[in-house]
Amino acid sequence: MRRQGQPLRHFDFIMTQPTRTELQAFFDQHGIRDVECIFPDVSGYPRGKLMPASSFAAGSELRIAQAIPMQCVTGDYSYDPIFPDADPDVRLVPDYATLKLAPWSSVPRAFAIHDCMELDGTPCVFSARSLLETVVARYTAQGLTPVVAPEIEFYLTAPCVDPDIPLSAPLARNGRAEAGQSAFSMNMLNELAPFWDDFRTALDGLGIQADTWIHEVGTSQYEINLMHGDPLAVADQAFLFKYVAKEIAIRHGLNAVFMAKPIAGASGSSMHLHQSVVDAAGRNIFSDETGAPTAAFGHFIGGLQTYGPDLMLVFAPFVNSYRRFIAGTQAPINLEWGYDNRTAGLRIPKSGPAARRVENRIAGADANPYLAIAASLAAGLAGIDEKLEASQPLQEGANAYAQSHGLERSFLPAHARLFRSTSARRLLGDAFVTGYCAVKELEFQSYLHEISAWERRFLLPQV
User: In the CATH scheme, what is the code of domain 136-445?
Assistant: First the structure.
């Protein structure tokens, strides 16, 4: 019996668009009444519309307001001039390669990831998925193919019924909540086995290939590494990974938390990005025929070092994101690079020449995977094109935390740097950067209206 989430048929949806008859036959076979027509917004959150399966099979046009891809996490919209007052429509166009059964639904339901397209057929410049496609196209134009693999960390916590109360570890099979640090513990990984069994089944059905599963340093914190592949396909998988994790967690009375720093005093959660580039023959351009590093390898690192600081707000998009960057916690504070060195923002894992790659350790788990991958790849390619030189690598055993803090340390400076950066506007698009910064400004203003526990704890009795 086919499990929910498995591909629809044996014919190739990537190469050919399925016919109305083929789609309707599948929907009838599985009793599917509705299709989730989803896309990632600026925060990587799934938005969209629910469409009758019969209308989806018939190819009915689906539209949504242009501002929705740039909706704030608060639900607000920017009134920045970049968004027309008329708030025109964009079309939602399905990527049939993503059409699958939804493992999070209690009834048979399909979903498909959509692209946001202007009515004239051009990609919406505010669409995170379209931006990544644009960056990948720059590589394609040069006969190159980027390869990406993300490592995603997150916490499983007890339900958060009151936002004023800190998150806590859930009760496990032994009837107790986990206490202390249990890095790489198999016992603690098994304590929430019902969730993991259900989650793994859902990922298998969606075709999301996970390399390794581990218990991380934090209490009830975990890391799952996704297999390397095409950047857009990998970003789609990371997007769906977070969606299904949250839904399956709720099913088991848990919260799947992807905040960069969800618990004070505990480890932050990252989304490390492993990146390499292959040519038309499938050869890794970071290694030459002798197995030695190439000039392109150094230039790619140089691009990340040159442009990465301006793109910090993409890798760390929220006020909470900057709580993660603490020296000595394996969260980087600069873009130094070194071989097998986890103190550096850019780590080069030990590997054979064919697998030589750059691990960008800056992005948090809260980053939009489409935007984080797009920004990292855009910076790397600019380094190759402009032949930018990398700094000298850290000496073996050196500590990057002993170097200067080369990244913005809080939200406002990162916001200002991105907004005024001509380089970021060239790499990501002028309209996108303006719109993105407008969204982040609104979110920050909402944050300023909150009175924190710190203020009540110390100011209330003493001022």
Answer: 3.30.590.10
